[in-house]
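Supplementary Note 2. Why include the ligand at all?

Several targets in our set were suspected to adopt different conformations when bound, so apo predictions alone were not considered sufficient. For every target with a known small-molecule partner we therefore ran a joint prediction. The input for magnesium ion is given below.
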Amino acid sequence: MALESLKDVVRKITKSASVDKKLVEEVVKDIQRALLKADVNVRQVKEISDAIKKRALSEDVLPTFNAREHIIKIVYEELMRGIGEGLEIPLKKSKIMLVGLQGSGKTTTTAKIAKYFKDRGLKTAVVTADTWRPAAYEQLKQLAEAYNIPFYGEKNGNAIKIVKNALKNLKDYDMLIVDTAGRHALEKELIDEMIEIAKVLQPDYKLLVLDAAIGQLASKQAKAFHDAIGIDGIVITKFDGTAKGGGALSAAREIGIPIAFIGSGEKVEDFERFDPAGFVSRLLGMGDIKALLEKVERVVSQEELDPEAFLKGTFTLKDIYKQIEAMSKMGPIRKIFDLLPFGFSMKVDDDAMEMTQEKMRKFKVIMDSMTEEELLNPKIIDSSRIRRIAIGSGTSPQEVKELLKYYKTMKNVMKRFKKKKLPIKGLKMGF
Ligand SMILES: Nc1nc2c(ncn2[C@@H]2O[C@H](COP(=O)(O)OP(=O)(O)OP(=O)(O)O)[C@@H](O)[C@H]2O)c(=O)[nH]1
Ligand SMILES: [Mg+2]
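The joint prediction is reproduced in token form.
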């Protein structure tokens, strides 16, 4: 993959004897070459490389960075800016409709997205509205069954009727992923069918599935689909098998549609939410830590998760709420602690700190059912309140208690931080 050579750029900066204009110019050239090879469009390549050059030669090095880190940070930030935001589909009741040309990977992606949301605790089902290709029904059925994902389809039905029936049959599901038929080209017949399906389905998200191998052609294709039915997000597939993946990335940016997911293999597991920070870090070979550092910087500055405030003020359930929100963006809290400038590291057993997505979602739902007073002063939550909260949030009293236990444990951790009685040995989070 052409983008792979971006790793060499970082290596070059790290190994350079001195950081000067010559190095910056070389680095900018290397980046240009890598992006162009990856089929990123010329105008975007110019924008990105110009910005890197300008900043690298004019900006002061921040006190916490050395000159090399400073350049790497600028490269990282400008690539991030070039890539734009990802589309994060929230974990709530939604309908997703997939569209795309023949063979782009819609059916595979339908199963991948379904597994993604199922793994995160949503009651998810898939629907095939592809009556064009005879084997489409079996293909999706088999994929879905392999992961215990409920499937709806009709072997000889009409796509619009199938969607109507699916909506009736799958009313109780949180997340419906609807696969549609592809055509060789975006012809009128396909457009009409997509419009009809969308009318009946009323999808929250229309996702366009783009094969990364088409490189810069992605731009024309995405624009045509967007003009025809309005696209909310892009899924790039087959990122594994091509050197031209930059084409689809830059197409999304050019048209202004965020990327939601990336598929990088035939297996249902070969799939991830498109997270620009993680993505760029990996391109640059900086691993998760750098990405996390950046994120911590951002999050702390937004006071989403402010450990200093934790230490100063009273630690309430609101902090747990913020913490969970930050965690769903950044990964486990343990990793964040590892990076914070407390001057000591905390030895915590991994499992204890790890919170599953499912648990995070539950905890948030439970807190959403609490009053302001309860959030700020959890001590008042007695057993009758616990019962009320459980009913209100559709959870069990046991689960509410679990959250309160987690809160107490975290509060203890914060107290110990305050007293610097660390490291905490064998800290258990109680679940
Ligand atoms: N390497 C790789 N192959 C993929 C990926 N996604 C899908 N494929 C393969 O691409 C081929 C087409 O995938 P489908 O999911 O059937 O594509 P589709 O868009 O549903 O095709 P039609 O229904 O004919 O329009 C299959 O062989 C998939 O296994 C991916 O991310 N990487
Ligand atoms: Mg298909």
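The longest helix spans residues 397-419. Residues 94-283 form a domain with the Rossmann fold fold (CATH 3.40.50.300). Comparable summaries for the other entries are listed in the accompanying table.
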